[in-house]
Amino acid sequence: MSAPIAFDIVIIGAGPAGQKAAIQGAKSGKRVALLERERGIGGSCVYRGTIPSKTLRESALHLDRLRRASAAFEFSLKPDAEISSLLSRLEEVVQTHDTYMSKQLRRNGISLFHGRARFLNDRTIEMQTVDGARQHFTADHFVIATGSRPRNPQEIPVDHEHILDSDSLLSMIYLPRSLAIIGGGVIGCEYASIFALLGVEVTLIDRAKAPLQFMDQELVAQFVASFEQHGGHYLGGQSIQSVQWDGATHVVTLLGDGQIIKSEKMLVALGRQANVEDLNLGAAGLEVNGKGSLSVNQFCQTTAPHIYAVGDMVGAPALASKAMEQGRRAVRHALNLPIGDAASTIPIGVYTIPEMASIGLDEKMASERFRNPLVGRAKFEEVARAQISGAGHGLLKMIADPSGERLLGIQVVGDSATELVHIGQMALQQGALVESFIDNVFNFPTYAEAYRVAALDILGQVAKRQTAAAA
Ligand SMILES: Cc1cc2nc3c(=O)[nH]c(=O)nc-3n(C[C@H](O)[C@H](O)[C@H](O)COP(=O)(O)OP(=O)(O)OC[C@H]3O[C@@H](n4cnc5c(N)ncnc54)[C@H](O)[C@@H]3O)c2cc1C
Q1: Which of 60, 76, 251, 298 would staple 266 via disulfide (CB 3.0–4.6 Å)?
Q2: Residue 443: which residues within 8 A CB-CB, separation 6 or more?
């Protein structure tokens, strides 16, 4: 083994969190090493998560648009459609991303090493390559960005052939005729709506009466209605008694109320768990918490102040956007650079069909903090752009304080929701008033017009309250 290599910062994991941490370190003039156990860079975001699922989603939406545009023709997918034909752009997207990221790392002078990393002590990392070679690294600061993997409870026999998780789902060769999904979180709901649109008979099963408990339930109701319109079926308030492959044709799921669901395939989407096992954290004096991850303070510092942990490995929300921001902030903190306070307003985007997004307080949170907050609604059917594109179902909710002046949050369901929410995000960050959405002239026809409609709704309610108070 060669002598240890000294760096200013060593980062473990080249997913979104690790990459942004590395780039921040290098841009600040530091010597940075990025250690990644896989051959490619990009983490689960690129290979098993965000990019593959959104590529399949784009194909489903494209097929749906074709179907709607050619109503005069009979248009349907072949019964034995191959998943690869729906993911034909994936390789190209992943390749482009990989090339772009590699160039960015090289351009910034970041040293990329491939191998599995573990702590030897709180100042030394050992990395083992696939051929067994070992290399030691020392540094002033460390960033752990090792991400997460699907949480598969022992009682569910995930075999990655009939009973799959989100890492193995897209390795299916053919589009199944039926798919049962356990778990009504983001991943379960996204895949449920994508496969339903592709004509698969989807049953989504969850403990809760409605899925996506952390989202505004008025938005979720619209999602569930659309999912069921596309042939999907949501089974809420259910527990799972057993799941097994019958050895011939079906996965058989026995529910708590005695119902039996038979499906060709099953997706287990019961959350994520942090990748901590390989890291030998004890050697660095770090302890895993009750949730199986590392606890960190607001600067992403672990109990060892020179060791930071960022991204999925520190827990929810498991979002690439959050992971990148934490990577960047952790390194800025380590280097005593100003970090700003953007982290309090991270938007949530859920790429179901239709998609959903949220920033700031929703109606329920606002009601808990204020008496009688005001809620302005803009239904997409009132917005010309949505009428033109045939995407009439959608809703933008604007949440304001009881005086109707101060903007508290925005929630959107419908076409372009994940883009549209950023207007609200900027307004919130700038402390804009509800009235500013009326004072501004928006392009016409646009979805952004929904902001104006919702703001007018709030001002209308303010006027009514004032009239009632004066009477
Ligand atoms: C199906 C699905 C859809 C998703 N859709 C979205 C979406 O639309 N929008 C969004 O924002 N987020 C989405 N996400 C979440 C997003 O992918 C994650 O939040 C993001 O990838 C987390 O980044 P990370 O850098 O923390 O971890 P990862 O991306 O998991 O990267 C961790 C890296 O660390 C490496 N590593 C682990 N252990 C070691 C070790 N010991 N030594 C060396 N290297 C190691 C891994 O190989 C990996 O490359 C989705 C996730 C899934 C599963």
Answers
A1: 251
A2: none
Percent of the chain with pLDDT over 90: 82
CA distances from 344 to 35, 329, 356 (A): 30, 13, 19
Judge residue 367's burial from the number of C-beta atoms within 10 Å of its C-beta, 0-12 exposed, 13-18 middle, 19 or more buried: middle
Whether the per-residue pLDDT at 425 is higher than 60: the answer is yes
| Angle between helical axes of 186-197 and 50-69 (0-180°, round to 10) | 30
Residue 74 pLDDT class (50, 70, 90 cuts): low
Cα angle vertex 187, ends 184, 193, to 5°?
Answer: 75
Coil, helix or strand for 257?
coil
What is the rounded distance in angstroms from the CA atom of residue 349 to the CA atom of residue 8?
35
**145: CA distance to ligand 1 center in Å?**
9
Our answer on whether the CB atom of 13 is closer than 6 Å to any ligand 1 atom is yes
Query: Which of 275, 280, 419 to mutate to test ligand 1, by most ligand atoms within 8 A of the CB atom?
Result: 275
Residue with CA at minimum distance from ligand 1 atom 49:
43
Longest dimension (CA), the chain: 86
- State residue 148 phi and psi, 5-degree precision: -145, 170
Q: Does the beta carbon of 319 lie inside 6 Å of ligand 1?
A: yes
- Mean pLDDT is lowest, of 81-85, 122-126, 327-331, for 81-85
379-400 pLDDT, tens per residue? 999 899 988 887 778 999 999 9
**What would the two tokens of residue 256 be?**
């708590």
**Residue 219 to residue 393: CA distance in whole angstroms:** 11
Taking Cα atoms as reference points, which of 367, 449, 429 lies closest to residue 400? 367
Residues in the chain, how many?
471
DSSP 155: T
Bridge partners of 396?
Answer: 378, 412
Cβ–Cβ under 8 Å, residues 165 and 151 = no
Residue 173, pLDDT score: 92
pTM over 0.90: yes
132-157 pLDDT, tens digit each: 999 999 999 999 999 999 999 999 99
Angle between helices 16-27 and 90-107 (to 10 degrees): 30
150 Cβ closer than 6 Å to some ligand 1 atom = no
Q: Which atom of ligand 1 is nearest to the CA of 351?
A: 8
Closest residue by CA, ligand 1 atom 4: 50
Given the CA of residue 117, which atom of ligand 1 is nearest to it?
42
